[in-house]
Amino acid sequence: MKVERLTDEALERVQAIEADAGPYRWSRADWLSSLQSDDCFELICDEEAVAVAAFSVVCDEANLLNIAVPNHAQRRGYARRLLVHCLDEYAVNGIKHCFLEVRRSNAPAIALYESLGFSLIGERKNYYPVKGGREDALVYLSRLQRGEQERAAKITTAEEKDDA
Ligand SMILES: CC(C)(COP(=O)(O)OP(=O)(O)OC[C@H]1O[C@@H](n2cnc3c(N)ncnc32)[C@H](O)[C@@H]1OP(=O)(O)O)[C@@H](O)C(=O)NCCC(=O)NCCS
After folding, report:
1. Residue 35 main-chain phi, psi, to 5 deg
2. Is 113 a catalytic residue?
3. Contact 107, 115 (CB under 8 A)
4. Nearest C-alpha to atom 25 of ligand 1 is from which residue?
5. Structural domain boundaries of the chain?
6. β partners of residue 82
7. Where is the N-acetyltransferase domain (predicted)?
């Protein structure tokens, strides 16, 4: 398994992965802009891209803008693995915080972020458009320390095994 940084050559691929991941999608223009200006990564397993993520970075702050795993590859730990890799790399390179926003209804993503030690720090009312209305965003923060994300992920896994 390996993580690779993406350029705009990956546009079709990331769009296909996101389209297969869930109901909400970035536009082609959003992905193109992010591939050209932000940090975009993919996790490759057996020569297949199994997770993609986009971050923006300003000074010592990262923002997770998007992450997606194709439907057939979900619940195999790929999103966790990609996030742990990226957040540890950022920590090593002096990035101190990672923020993210997530739809209040997105239970899988919220569980993923909390399993990695992200803390809920606020909410933005009516932030996202949804069919027939708006939905709140929850705002999460992780303070990055080298090795911390990996450690948090391992602790969560061990706790879950104890509970099983
Ligand atoms: C959210 C998403 C990226 C998770 O990807 P994934 O590779 O399936 O997640 P992982 O297998 O790494 O899961 C890690 C942990 O997250 C949580 N989790 C992930 N999917 C879950 C689900 N469907 N239900 C409950 N918890 C879930 C669990 O705690 C899981 O650990 P466990 O499997 O040991 O219990 C994926 O569901 C997805 O692409 N969704 C659509 C796009 C999206 O919503 N992106 C987030 C935008 S903010």
Report:
1. -65, -30
2. yes
3. no
4. 108
5. 2-163
6. none
7. 1-145
